[in-house]
Specification:
Layout lengths: L3 E6 L9 H15 L4 E7 L12 E5 L4 H14 L5 H4 L4 H14 L3 E5 L16 E7 L2 H8 L19 H9 L3 H19 L5 E4 L2 H10 L5 E2 L18 E8 L5 H21 L4 E5 L4 H5 L7 E5 L5 H5 L1 E6 L9 H8 L4 E3 L1 H4 L11 E2 L3 H13 L1 H18 L2 H12 L2
Parallel strand pairs: 1-2, 1-4, 2-3, 4-5, 5-6, 6-7, 8-9, 8-11, 9-10, 11-12, 12-13
Helix pairs in contact: 5-7, 9-14, 12-15
Length: 417
């Protein structure tokens, strides 16, 4: 039976420039393709591009003005200790009234909230007429605790919600070198909020089984998991794939702090050591990258940037392997699953395989030191049999654990369909 689904998003689906938008597109697309539901999408951010045709309707939501944002931060974050900063900078009473009108008009059977920061927009009264579902994505608190351990932090580590924070607030934090303290404060606030906000929802899920299990150990509320999926027909493994044995690829939106810091580490710590052994190696970076970010890497002569492309497949598949020494973060890294689906061997670390049921030297290669990464790159590029074996097992793993069918079964369980 056809249902109405309202998804409250933190950003437009298009353009799909990060892993989060890829996931939201998957979920909403499957609601239409597999369940034949009507999907209504309300999101923050300007809808500059046409959104997917499968959406029944789209709504642009306004962020709070500076006065309301400042009041939220002072009252709800620092005084009441109720909301983390990222929730305070997203809540607007005007937008609340607009969402109330949208819900009254659409009368959805299900309302999905995209991440905990949008949760305050849903009142308990909505539960009388519809099922409220919180898509947590991953454990944000864990991500911030890890980021706080990094050196040389700047405001980009605040992620997607940085642009919503008043510049005056950020300038004070920067001047007094308080970024680490701010991140630790936000991590503590988010950890507390994650445990409290789930009580307002009928269903809660993560995209990583590891995060789900970690959360469930701390909470009396038992969350679920909806596995990250890839389109196996689109990200296929071509027979007889030709690749450059001396070119490594890194995939991601480099304007995002986690990807940028990982690329810095890959270039400075791994590639420089690799080039001392063999100067023929190159690094191809595929993904969105502003000119400002590009300037920070242009002195690395061995890096080539594709910038944003409509189809990543020919770029990734032209390389011998994906190298991803993830520096921090939480949840599943979609770039790793997509590379494995395409038959491209992956060389990563423990952060890269978090949430994946894989084994080192089988479905991929897991390294923890710079030297191990260098050895693995040279091994995979110099041994065709080893390269082919890991590529094949990586593809088999994705087929078994991250197909669209697996994701649909998870959604059926969450939706009780």
């Amino acid at each position: 039976m056809k249902k109405k689904i309202l998804f409250i998003g933190t950003r437009p689906i298009y353009p799909m420039k990060d892993g989060r938008t890829v996931l939201i597109n998957q979920y909403c697309g499957q609601f239409v393709d597999y369940f034949h539901d009507e999907v209504y999408y309300a999101c923050f951010g300007a809808l500059k591009m046409k959104q997917p045709d499968y959406l029944k309707a789209t709504y642009a939501l306004e962020e709070p003005g500076l006065w309301e944002m400042g009041k939220n931060i002072v009252c709800m974050t620092f005084l009441a200790r109720k909301w983390p900063i990222q929730t305070s900078v997203m809540y607007s009473a005007k937008t609340q009234r607009k969402l109330d009108d949208i819900i009254e008009k659409v009368r959805p059977d299900y309302i999905f909230c995209d991440m905990a920061r949008t949760a305050p927009y849903l009142h308990k009264r909505y539960g009388k007429d519809c099922v409220k579902i919180l898509d947590m994505d991953d454990l944000l608190s864990k991500r911030y605790y890890r980021q706080a351990e990094m050196e040389n932090l700047d405001d980009s580590v605040l992620g997607q919600f940085r642009n919503r924070i008043p510049d005056l607030f950020i300038s004070v934090v920067a001047k007094w070198k308080l970024m680490k303290k701010l991140l630790r404060f936000e991590a503590r606030m988010m950890e507390k909020y994650e445990l409290q906000v789930v009580k307002e929802f009928d269903k809660v899920f993560f995209c990583s089984a590891t995060d789900k299990e970690e959360f469930n150990r701390k909470s009396s509320y038992q969350a679920d998991c909806v596995h990250v999926a890839v389109d196996l027909e689109y990200f296929h493994r071509p027979e007889g794939r030709e690749y450059d044995a001396k070119t490594i690829v890194y995939l991601g939106n480099i304007d995002i702090a986690a990807n940028r810091d990982t690329l810095f580490y890959l270039a400075e710590k791994i590639m420089c050591k690799l080039l001392k052994r063999d100067s023929a190696y190159k690094l191809l970076v595929v993904g969105n990258c502003s000119q400002e970010t590009y300037q920070k890497f242009r002195h690395y002569h061995f890096i080539e940037f594709s910038f944003r492309v409509d189809d990543i497949r020919p770029f990734v598949q032209s390389c011998v392997a994906l190298a991803a020494p993830i520096q921090y973060g939480s949840g599943i890294k979609i770039k790793i699953i997509e590379a494995m689906a395409m038959g491209v061997p992956v060389i990563t670390n423990q952060y890269g395989v978090e949430g994946l049921d894989v084994h080192s030297d089988q479905e991929l290669m897991v390294c923890e030191t710079d030297e191990q990464f260098v050895d693995a790159i040279m091994e995979i590029s110099g041994n065709e049999q080893r390269h082919g074996l890991i590529a094949a097992k990586g593809r088999e793993y994705v087929e078994k654990n991250h197909s669209l069918e697996v994701c649909v079964r998870d959604l059926e369980r969450v939706l009780n369909r």
